[in-house]
Amino acid sequence: MAERDSTATARDWRAAVLADVIRRPAVAGAPNRLGWPGYDGRPALWWGTGPVEGVDAVVAVWDFAVNGGSFGEADAGAFADAAAAAVAGRLPLVSLVRSGGTRLQEGVAGLVGLARVSLALAEVAAAGLPHVAVSDQPTTGGMWVTVGSRADLRCAVLGATVGFAGPRVVAAVTGEAPPAGASHTAAAAHAAGLVDAAVAPAAVASWLRRALDAVAVPARVLPAARTPDPPARTDADGDRAGIADNSRADASRADASQAGSGPAPARGGWEQVLAARTGQRRHAGDILDGLFPAGVDLTGPDRTVRARVGRLAGTPVTDGEPGAGGEPGAGGLGPRAVGVALAVERGGAPGPAGYRLLVRAAGLASRLGLPLVTLVDTPGAECGPAAEAGGIAAEIGAAMAEVLGCASPTLSVIVGEGGSGGALAACCTDVVLMSPDSYVTALSPEGTATTLRISVEQAADTAGLRPSDLVSLGFADGVLAPRDTGPPGLAHRVTEVLTELTMRDSDVRLRQRRAKWSTGLGGFL
After folding, report:
1. What do you get for the CA distance between the two ends of the chain, in Å?
2. Burial track 278-307 (b if 16+ CB lie within 10 A, e otherwise)
3. How far is CA 89 from the centre of its chain?
4. Using CA atoms, how far apart are residues 153 and 196, in angstroms rounded to an integer?
5. Which of 9, 67, 189, 286 meets the CB 3.0–4.6 Å disulfide criterion with 157?
6. What SS3 class is residue 411?
7. How far apart are alpha carbons 416 and 286 in whole angstroms?
């Protein structure tokens, strides 16, 4: 059964969060199938509906005072009802977990409730609705397996025991207790990338507020305050149209006049590589934070890649939702989206877990109908023995397939280096934009030089890797003007592109993406 623990992290934080939630009647208790003396089969889980930090939601709540929050037949029925209510009401599902796992007095009859949870959450996912979970003291066993570790957005409360087998079970089974503080804690789960945040009890409400705002129904967005682009063409052959042409026009204007600073510098390929590696520009992780100032992170164990979901900066909303200043349409925050920085810092080489985070982010964007924005700045994926053993090739391929198949509008911005398939996995998007100091190549100049037995400089100069080359070849759709490489220009440009993509017929947009990436490049240098 659940491990009982007399301590609980901030027993009062849930009271404020649940103050306006209307509790639904409890389901009937489970039968005493195994004949345990005096068994109390009432559920430890209750659910209700109402605002959670200002967002209407369905909430499933585990009560540790009832059989240690253990999960059995009746609890599975209650959770299934909560999930069904979320689907019927088009509401997010919020799980507040305090449970040691399966109710052992029910045996296998209680264990199969985990399968019911998985199926219920699959229905929530299929409906395009988010599931947000907070793992409190304790969250172990089946509730960590099916709820806490697999929610769309995951938070753990500092001080809580979090893990698959409780520490006492680990000691009983293995003969050795896990190291204190280094395992089976909220902090350890966060360090391992298993939860997206580990926060103090007093900070849970703030995290929930940002998380639910990030994945709520997207707001309508005001048109960008520039001369609008012409409507996108829908060519019969599904060829590139609309944004591609307009972005190329923007690129030509940017090349002709660098925001009043004169013509763009005429660089060779190697000079372009050096500009990407050593030039004055921000890291992709910093850009991600600037684009999503009030978002919440999606976290994985490979910290060379970061993902974030929330509102884009810089564009007011128009559907009456409160902005950052609390007034409708006055907050300076734009549409919701999912962003990924690959890699976070210059020179970062993502490993297998980094691409799994890209898969998670792209899948979440697709399922919730949120646009996906990737920020690319990597010389290539990790290529050492550990990465090979970890399946780096398969993970890159899986990430590429997820980005290509994302049902939502997709945009990639190459902010620096773009090396080989490790970068391409994040670039297979509806629109590809490049910063003036970026490049993309089939293999790093050093790798190309080694393979072709030429100098590094010659490898770069003949690779067609400059932004202007990549637009001419048909890989990139435009080059950002210098004013659009940092805030607020980039946020404005990203919102402008995503707004146009969102206005397109989705079938047409997906057909154009498929045509773009299923045929060879049509240009020449």
Report:
1. 68
2. eeebbbbbbbbbbbbbebbbbbbebbbbbb
3. 24
4. 7
5. 9
6. strand
7. 13
Residue 41 Cα distances to 1, 38, 106, 115, angstroms:
13, 9, 9, 19
Please answer whether residues 430 and 243 qualify as being in contact, where contact means their C-beta atoms are separated by less than 8 angstroms: yes
Per residue, what are the HEC states of 213-255? HHHCCCCCECCCCCCCCCCCCCCCCCCCCCHHHHHHHHHHHHH
Q: Does domain 243-321+333-518 have CATH number 3.90.226.10?
A: yes
Amino acid at 66: V
Q: In terms of Cα–Cα distance, which of 429, 415, 423 is closest to 501?
A: 429
Crossing angle of helices 445-452 and 269-278, rounded to 10°: 140
- E strands along 365-448, which residues? 372-378, 410-418, 431-434
Give residue 327's pLDDT.
33
Mean pLDDT of the chain: 87
**Model-level pTM?**
0.87
Q: What phi and psi, each to the nearest 5 degrees, are found at residue 375?
A: -115, 115
Return the structure tokens found at 64.
């540790």
Residue ranges of the chain that CATH labels 3.90.226.10: 13-215, 243-321+333-518
| Assigned superfamily of 13-215 | 2-enoyl-CoA Hydratase; Chain A, domain 1 (3.90.226.10)
Inform me whether the pLDDT recorded for 229 exceeds 90.
Answer: no
Q: How far apart are CA 253 and CA 441, in angstroms?
A: 24
In the block, which residue shows the tokens 């100032």? Answer: 293
